[in-house]
Amino acid sequence: MRVGVLALQGAFREHILVFEALGASTVAVRLPEQMEGLDGLVLPGGESTAIAKLMRAYGFYEAIRGRLETGMAVWGTCAGAILMAREIGDARPDQEPLGLMDIVVRRNAYGRQVDSFEAPLHFRHIGEPYPGVFIRAPYIESVGEGVEVLAEHDGRIVAAREERLLATTFHPELTVDLRVHRFFIEQIVAVQ
Ligand code: GLN
Fold it and tell me: Is the whole-model pTM more than 0.85?
């Protein structure tokens, strides 16, 4: 199994370390060609406008949509979840999401940087409270019919899955708890 982590901007190193700890072979993806043969791809947290600009400059929009059709799984964390969305709730005109997943996401939904916080989450299929680290996090405003809600916080959706797509508005790569990464590998990437 090979998992790539988009390594243009943001918290990609942390994801790579977790996947390596779980024994998955991992690629830091800087060019679309590096997605060939990948079973899964992570769009990390960071700054969604910066990541989107770089993705467009390198031709990632078309390439990711193409690889999706050939079965690659995709997991977006925080900024990555914003990029996966069908729609960004309060988007500026220059912000076009990839439109991979049938979710509407609201950016910086909890306010400013100081409003970053940690909260225990009940994450479906994972069990015990999972430590959710929220950093200028978005939340998922609404989901389409085929989307399973996996976690909520304060009545707002913070994790969801649609077939081979996973979106989390928090940062599992910044905790020592490997269960969401394991869930992605075992329940999404490995299931064809
Ligand atoms: N607020 C950031 C954005 O809109 C996301 C923050 C994050 O990824 N931690 O891109």
Answer: yes
